[in-house]
Amino acid sequence: MDRTSLIAELSSRGLRDEALTGPLYKRLAQALTGLIQEGLLKPGAALPGERDLAEALKLGRVTVRTAYRDLMAAGVLESRHGSGTFVSSKVERMEQSLWRLSSFSADMRSRGRLPAARILSRTINTPSPEESFLLGLGGDEPVLRLDRLRLADGLPLAIERAVVPIKFLGVDAGGEGSLYDALAASGHRPVRALQRLTAVTLDPSSAAILNVKSGAPALLIERVSRLEDQRVVEYTRSHYRGDAYDFVAELRIGDDL
Fold it and tell me: Which domain of life is it from (predicted)?
């Protein structure tokens, strides 16, 4: 929502309606919260400065400042030094099982969210020595390197960097949908995987892509997926936002305890 649309929406909500009760700053805070809950103001969206919003709505600057302050205290808005006021980028935390192999797209759909992918880089070339070893390939067998930003309901959640042998996927694989669906369509859906999780902090470039602060916590997940015949079909390194995910595993007590 651009500045003009935001002003029009706030104006239409009757902040000065005499039938409403409560101070003006409360009404403004409620109107902004409503726009966020309705999805008209997205996480990370910039808000006008206090003076600009006050002049546009014909309110006192203190009214706008107090509304912003209350929403920041509630975690709805956030202030970024030198940049202004933004809708909070904090997201509802999600639990992800460590024992179930599923694609990002399928996982988001099961939660009632709309998954999407934005391609950051897509190349086809020969594997590195490490990739040749992990994937069990000859040095001249081509691989698809697919770097994508994974989103749910338009919110960036993870940067995924996948390496897949072309022989399992085909050179025309697009990359915007589910990679596992594409592998399944070619008869090469993975059935098992080994994952390694590491706590890391995001470099400035990755943080900017995920719309979080540089140095923000993240989970690095390295996954090697295999077919039924044990051939490796995928090697992926993904950085998941640390404020969005909790990875959980159910453990059983051994008989020797």
Answer: Bacteria
Would you list the DSSP string of 148-185? EEEEETTEEEEEEEEEEEHHHH-TT--SSS-HHHHHHH
Are both 97 and 77 inside the same structural domain? no
Q: Is residue 257 part of a domain?
A: no
Cβ count within 10 A of residue 184 = 13
Residue 251 domain-assigned (yes or no): no
pTM: 0.64
| Other Cβ atoms within 10 Å of 98 Cβ, number | 12
Domain at 34, CATH number:
1.10.10.10
Q: Which residues contact 244 (CB under 8 A, 6 or more apart)?
A: 91, 92, 93, 94, 157
Please write the tens of the pLDDT for every residue from 141-166.
999 999 999 888 777 889 999 999 99
The CATH number of residue 98's host domain is 3.40.1410.10
Give the Cα separation of 42 and 46 in Å (integer).
Answer: 9
127, 137 in Cβ contact below 8 A? yes
Does residue 55 fall inside a structural domain? Answer: yes
Pairwise CA distance, residues 213 & 202, whole Å: 8
Q: How many residues does the chain have?
A: 257
Q: Tell me: the pLDDT tens digits for 34-91?
A: 888 777 888 788 899 999 999 999 999 999 999 999 888 877 888 887 788 988 866 6
